[in-house]
Batch of 2 targets.
Target 1
Amino acid sequence: MTPTELSEQEEHLFEVLSGKRFLQMEGLSNEVPFFIYHYAPEDALAIAGSRKRIKNRLANGGIDVREINLYDLSVEMLKDRGVWDRLLALEPEQDKADFRELLQGMLDPQLHLAPAIRAKLAEGDFDVFFLTGIGEVFPYIRSHNVLNNLQSVVTGKPMLMFFPGRYEQSDTLGSSLVLFGRMKDDQYYRAKDILEQGA
């Protein structure tokens, strides 16, 4: 992405996110208020800077953003359960597939992640929820599983997931999350592409 394209997308995001229509979740036709901002993985650092600027601009306009990074939340959960150090010691010696399975059980979206996110969202009022850290938690947490389990957790506020890859939408095949532009995570059709939203 060129600096000009990044600047244009940043401006678009700010306009949409600060708009009354978005904040009041108008025109969703009873759909969940989930939006995806997909970008090329190689642009992740530039996008992180852009996200920070957008949050600051929104805050200056009185719009509070609650951001949850899935990687940071996962580490926090594992530390709170007292297993972080044991996992670090175990990881170099254990078979990768077995280790992934172990982490998937400990960070199950329905049993563990969704309740942890619910608790974080209940810590105070906010206007928009940013979900980040998607690429850092692959393959032990899959984004479509998280989204499916957040439908009953994120209610009454719009959510924007920052996704390093493509969100492909097709009339015949439905919508798919393609992580890093290479791995089809799974079909997820309920979110809307934020870049296609009007301000």
Target 2
Amino acid sequence: MELDNLTESLHGPSRRRYDDGCGTAHALDLIGERWALLVMRELMLGPKRFSDIRADLPGISANTLTQRLEGLEKNGLVLREKLPPPASGQVYGLTEWGHQLLPVMGALGRWAVRSPDHDPNQHFSAVSLMLSFMAMSQSPDAGRLEARIGFRLGRENYVLTMKDGGARAARGEPVDTDAVFEGAPAAIAAAVYGGVPLAALEAEGALKIAGDRALAERFTTLFPLPPKAPRPGTPR
């Protein structure tokens, strides 16, 4: 008992590690802490300042974010970088190994949206919206589209390139794009995943569309959510 208490005082509660040789179990050792995976999500499309990560994860405290970043850095998934002059301060980014989690995250998201409890009307950060398009771009209609779609999402801008049956998002100014969406990520998610007409969102002042209007309308139909999994006890 004394040895167990000493181990916990030095390394944290033993329940946080599974001591299991399975790769999946060790993955949970690395990223299974609350918020850890979402912190990595926010860094998937480029480094961010501490304050920006926290702003995009409104439910996390500064203390918890500090702990998660330290843990992910210790595990070799996150690194700290100093911004070159004339900027100052530091940013957090993913290591090469950390970036390799991207397809796993996409597969996990595609699996989870089948949950009867998934609600696409909840909070979306700019990065989570872009990653959702990348993950859900496997529909036949999305695969046939070749276009560059720009997004102005407050303090972050992105370009989504749809080509060769997939989609890839990159941080940057929307130049030479076919259409541009401007608004909060939640408003764009409402159009794409919630079926809210673009005209209604524009009338509310929640969204602006520039460029090819027909393409923008088509874009909102390209990412249908899969059927929900049945709840236990419900007829199939």
